[in-house]
């Protein structure tokens, strides 16, 4: 692919108020106007480069949103207080009572709960499908469907979505194709494959330091303007504002994302290859035996690798719990949810980040109670970490 997302980020120059190489942090919740007429015009139609109130826009969130939209190759973007608020506001802007969403069945547990448990209160229902079964996707779309929703690489089973094919399906039926790219920033550019909206939890790889929560959506200008309408915009009226200082720090971290993603991917591949060499049931799209390995190679930016997410199935919740406890003792990493941190994080999603999904549905999608999800860190000496991993497996009798 000719589009270079990291170059698009690196070409952004935003000067501070006194010429600083980092933009100044705006410490104001409201902004002055030189005339009542200008304020009135701002309320009626908005003014480019003009700030009204921090719930609408502030300079730091605008800079971050512009950088992310350039990274994604979209017309515009908007940042929010969390990934879930970015997803929720997007879906509420696109759907109303009586509408339907077709969504991948294997998605983050919080997203699943939003779609399955919360949105039906507002008359918006969801049909969950195996996103890799294109016949099932087509069959699920009805005249009431408004959105097709998937994750690029699914949480936690690491299935890879065929974005171009799904985009074609969506657009044939005039649906909005929404893609969560949280696991694979830079690795995939979903908009280049037909996604209409790309959503992120900035908390994860993009920020990279597990010290802040944030979200983003990148889309065409028309949709972002609608989301920010003072009259009926979901993002404006629900108010998920990202703090200015956090916006500024995330923008600084974004500029090292290309280095970090390469390191996460390098270590993730080493992790997966070593587990596979021990004949353990490991899932990683960078392994040739992964069902969508060839698909990912065709759609990805290869210079950033296959990502830092790896899963290992140890058969039972008891095995998973014993191993995770020992891995933390052996300094493999932290027993913690989330991902994208510089240290390896691991958890058992069946009873943590995917616990919102009923057990029967977890079983139907192949989510074992013994599955451990690893977010492999930035370890300089991955061989040392793999030695600690092997020692942990030996201690619990799995090696």
Textual characterization of the structure:
- The chain has 399 residues and is α/β, with parallel strands linked by helices.
- Helices cover 39% and strands 14% of the residues.
- A 7-stranded mixed β-sheet has the order 1-7-6-5-4-2-3, with helices on both faces.
- Strand 4, helix 7 and strand 5 form a beta-alpha-beta unit.
Total helical segments = 15
Report the helical percentage: 25-40%
Q: Strand fraction band?
A: 5-15%
According to DSSP, the number of beta strands is 12
What's a concise summary of this model?
With 399 residues, the chain is an alpha/beta fold.
Features:
single chain; 399 residues; alpha/beta; 7-stranded mixed beta sheet; 15 helices; globular
How would the blueprint of this fold be written?
Elements: H1 5-10, H2 36-45, H3 59-72, E1 76-80, H4 83-94, E2 100-104, H5 109-118, E3 125-129, H6 134-140, E4 145-151, H7 163-172, E5 176-180, E6 197-201, E7 215-219, H8 221-227, H9 234-238, H10 244-254, H11 257-277, E8 282-283, H12 293-299, E9 309-313, H13 317-329, E10 334-335, E11 345-347, H14 359-365, E12 371-375, H15 382-395
Parallel strand pairs: 2-3, 2-4, 4-5, 5-6, 10-11
Antiparallel strand pairs: 1-7, 6-7, 8-9, 9-12, 11-12
């Amino acid at each position: 692919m000719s589009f270079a997302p990291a170059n698009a980020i690196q070409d952004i120059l935003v000067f501070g108020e006194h010429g600083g190489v980092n933009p100044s942090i705006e410490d104001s919740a409201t902004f002055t106007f030189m005339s009542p007429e200008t304020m009135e015009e701002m309320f009626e139609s908005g003014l480019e480069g003009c700030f009204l109130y921090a719930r609408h826009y502030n300079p730091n969130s605008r800079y971050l949103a512009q950088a992310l939209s350039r990274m994604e190759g979209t017309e515009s973007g908007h940042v929010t207080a969390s990934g879930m608020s970015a997803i929720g506001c997007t879906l509420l802007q696109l759907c109303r009572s009586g509408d339907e969403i077709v969504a991948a069945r294997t998605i983050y547990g919080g997203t699943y709960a939003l779609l399955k448990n919360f949105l039906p209160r507002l008359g918006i229902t969801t049909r969950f499908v195996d996103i890799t079964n294109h016949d099932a996707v087509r069959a699920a779309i009805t005249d009431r469907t408004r959105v097709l929703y998937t994750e690029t690489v699914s949480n936690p089973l690491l299935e890879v979505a065929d974005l171009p094919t799904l985009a074609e399906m969506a657009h044939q039926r005039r649906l909005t194709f929404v893609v969560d790219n949280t696991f694979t920033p830079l690795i995939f550019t979903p908009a280049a494959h037909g996604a209409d909206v790309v959503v992120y939890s900035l908390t994860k790889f993009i920020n990279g330091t597990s010290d802040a929560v944030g979200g983003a959506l990148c889309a065409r200008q028309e949709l972002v303007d609608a989301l920010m309408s003072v009259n009926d915009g979901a993002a404006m009226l629900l108010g998920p504002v990202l703090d200015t200082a956090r916006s500024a720090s995330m923008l600084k971290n974004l500029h090292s994302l290309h280095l970090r993603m390469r390191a996460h991917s390098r270590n993730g591949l080493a992790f997966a290859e070593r587990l596979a060499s021990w004949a353990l049931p490991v899932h990683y799209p960078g392994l040739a035996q992964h069902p969508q390995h060839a698909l990912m190679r065709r759609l990805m930016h290869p210079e950033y690798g296959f990502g830092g997410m790896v899963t290992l199935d140890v058969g039972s919740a008891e095995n998973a719990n014993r191993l995770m406890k020992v891995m933390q003792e052996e300094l493999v990493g932290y027993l913690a949810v989330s991902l994208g941190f510089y240290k390896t994080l691991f958890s058992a999603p069946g009873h943590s980040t995917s616990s919102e999904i009923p057990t029967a549905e977890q079983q139907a999608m192949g989510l074992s109670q013994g599955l451990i999800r690893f977010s492999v860190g930035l370890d300089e000496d991955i061989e040392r970490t793999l030695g600690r991993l092997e020692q942990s497996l030996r201690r619990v009798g799995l090696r």
